[in-house]
Amino acid sequence: MLKKLKNFKDYTAEGELVVDHEDYKIWDNTDLENFTISNVILKAGKKTYSHSHPFNDEIYIFHSGQGHMIISRVTSSGKTEETKLDVEAGSIIPVNGTYEHQTFNTGDTKLHFTMIYDNIGKPTGNEDIGDGDEEYTGE
Questions:
Q1: What proportion of the chain, given as a percentage, has pLDDT over 70?
Q2: C-alpha distances in angstroms, 10 versus 32, 62, 78, 80, 133?
């Protein structure tokens, strides 16, 4: 169960450790039926991997540290458009999940942030989601 937020800087979703990478750790709290709350600690000078996902948009909320996010999308003309957003404690970044995105810690301390995303349409691993070219209908 989530605890009452005492201090924005020290917030944690208190979930299960799901990624234990040498550069970052991610804990997922799945107490809610329709949303996952992930607590992320990114080491100084490190970055997450660049990725996109067809099923979920995300909200990034930064608690401490400093860095930036790179968000890339391909326009209707086929050109790649890249946006760099500086982040620090208090930054909130909404991310369209279909856009390629990556987080960088440019500081000398950990970058602590929370990701919130919906579980609607999240693959269970039992279905064939194709090669990514099909339109997702939520079924």
A1: 77
A2: 21, 11, 42, 37, 41
* For the chain, counts of helices (H) and of strands (E): 0, 9
Report whether pLDDT(70) > 90: yes
Among 116, 103, 101, 97, residue whose Cα is nearest residue 56: 97
Do the beta carbons of residue 5 and residue 11 sit within 8 Å?
Answer: yes
- Of 112, 88, 110, nearest to 44 by C-alpha is 110
Q: Which residues contact 95 (CB under 8 A, 6 or more apart)?
A: 57, 58, 59, 60, 69, 71, 101
CA-CA distance, 20 to 15, in Å (whole number)? 13
Closest CA to 63 of 96, 26, 88, 95: 88
pLDDT range class, residue 55, cuts 50, 70, 90 = confident
Rg (CA), the chain: 16
pLDDT for 121 equals: 58
What are the backbone dihedrals phi and psi of residue 79, each rounded to the nearest 5 degrees, phi first? -85, 140
Average pLDDT, the chain: 82
